[in-house]
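Listing 4. Sequential folding, example run.
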Amino acid sequence: MTRVLSPVAGRAVGLPGVPDPVFAQAMVGPGTAVDPERKPGEAIAPVSGKIVKLHPHAFVVVDAEGHGVLVHLGIDTVQLKGEGFRLLAGEGDEVTAGQALVAWDPAEIEAGGRSPICAVVALDAGADALSQVVDSGEVAKGTELFQWN
């Protein structure tokens, strides 16, 4: 079982709360989302494992069980081409859950007219693979968002 942690502090809103149909309809995979605090901070690794994809606005960490967790920082943030994000790790790095991977400022993203909501998605998982999914209430960075069985 994989425990997936919140990469940011804020308010859990669930995938239906993401203003993007691909995430909201769980087409990428099941999971949840967090509306982050509006202050500069760092997004952390949701699980221990290897960073298989690392973009300024999104990353995927695959754990020892082969579970890939996608963290997408904000919506349509790929259009920023990395502006407002600073990488704190590299693709291929082995990381531990809770390790800072990307520095960013959700308030800056929002000021630019984009949603800073962070989707946290279990890639290639069935809808019934997750349990204990947090989709409402305040969450601290590093709080468990869901379990992947």
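-- end of first protein; second protein begins --
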Amino acid sequence: MATRVLPLYEVRGNARERGRQQGDAAREQVEASLAQYRELLPHATGLNWDEALVETRKFLPYGEVAFPGFVEELRGIAEGADISFLEVWALNCYEGLMQPEQAWGCTSVAVSGDLTGNGHVFLAHNEDWQSEDADHVYLVRSIPDEGPSFLAMTYGPLLANIGLNACGLAVAIDSVYPTDVRAGVPRILCARAILAARTIGEAIRACVPKSRAGGYNHLLADASGELYNVETSAATHEIEYGQSGWLAHSNHYLSPKMQALEEPGVYAGSNVRVNRARRLMAAQVGSVTVESLQTLLRDHVNWPDAICSHEDSGDPVHERTQTVASLVMDLTAQVMWAAPGPPCQNDFVPFPLLAGGPKAGAALCRKPTC
């Protein structure tokens, strides 16, 4: 295995200050990501860079109304990295500009403590994205003045959006492709809002703000073992409860209601990945461990479009994708095991949510108590 480890940056304070600290610490990743998208965006969206900046301004009023604090965070990232806020904003709206044929692949699974070897609740996720972004991935440990502390993954100038918080909540997101996209609240802001939630109910509501621009699937878990898939589009959503004690999802809708809104396509890779994940999960029910989930995330059935995804050098540069990061989150221990992608080539390294461990994390949840 390689010894590469994802960078970890700790930020504190109010939204603007935390953004500044993230932008300053991750300046190298931010600048490289920005340069990359200036080149790739016209191929992926049909817009040149200046046109994209104009187009994504349409999303800004919606974001400022729904989540003004997260917009402040993005303004801080721009200031910390010494780049234009509109360029940072544009990349956080990128999926709202993509052509329908640009489909990404991610795989997520969650399991309650009833089915694990040590009684812990786990959420595991492979983040599949543009291969060019593989070197731009990093982790953010955030200790805000208000709301729960969290540990999450991101890349370039994006808001941290996949991770776990001190109230025992975790989220993984899978891109889906509804036909009802519109100008509205960028979907990445909804994912970021989940990390600010204190309860699973708050987390579900965070997935579906009014006037959202599109949708993700949000795989949610809490430390008590409550598991939900929340499939969303711009105008509607469907909630699946993890009745059997585990859930899996990839990049197509599972609900017939949501499938009626899905962009036409084959989704072969997505189907193979979610079905493979289901089979691997079913085989280890009752004995799931951090190590068995890491093995699942390294699975190569349907190579190169497997759960552990590798780029195809024959694809055009803007269509080359791979697993850029791999995460296993232990909600009970408040630890994230993270590996740069593809995970078959790298070790998983444990990162505690907070240096003081679970008790320190609980102290920074600020959840009301009875």
